[in-house]
Amino acid sequence: MTKYTKRALFYSSVVLFILVSYIVVLYAQGYKYSFSESKFFRTGSIHVRASEDANVYLGGRFLNSTSFFGNSYTISRLLPGQYKVKLERENFSSWEKTVIVEEGLVSDYSRILLLPKTGDPKKSLIKEISGLLTVVPTKLPSPSPTPKTTSKPSSTKTPAPTPVSTEPFYLKNGDLFRTVENEQEKIAYLVLGFSVSPDDKKITWWDSSNQLWVMWLKDTDYQPHKKANEKELIIRFFSKIKNVAWFRDSDHVVVEADGYKVTEVDKRGSLNIVEID
Predict the structure, then answer these.
(1) How far is CA 249 from the centre of its chain?
(2) Are residues 125 and 70 in the same domain?
(3) 46, 246, 262, 271: least CB-packed within 10 angstroms?
């Protein structure tokens, strides 16, 4: 082997070592090469967490099952783009989204509901929904002045019962109002009924056009990030909405409209609605 050949091999090895080291460092920092774009991108992830253990699919391909603890799963090292994600469990409703992955970010879907479709679990579900829609008022009256009464002396003081407050929201002539610092703010019109979420961070209402709306009352600290007073049309139903209630958490709503329908309020990448018939 000549001196020239040895030198060429040495320098080639150095260049190859530097190139491989550079790729390894990029990989360790979360980068991945896109052959379609001919460059490196920082990868992103998709995190899902469901109410039940389920199988996770990406683009129709089975990946794994959610973990035993927390029923969650993270799909890592994804190039930026759109991905079809699906969760399935036998005898339960499925969940599917088109998820947008961005560089260096995690697309989080941690409030997924999978509901039973058969047997006694379904019967219990229907009973639960029926109970929710029975106790939730569909309409609340506008505040009316309390008539003044003349106080009468009494030897025994009986504490007055605590009234059920409808503040700060009320309906008046089909308009939905909110009282803020003694000022009345109109939120929506042609409203037939409304319901405040269990955590008092959202309010949902339906109108005469069978549209279901949600307004965020406070900023959210989880995805999808929403600001206080942000409104969003969730869906318009073809059949008449009879009643609405929050279902199990503050991220799903059950609607009575030609049967029962449980809808999420997260509209990212399509809306999952479970019909209970």
Answers:
(1) 10
(2) no
(3) 271
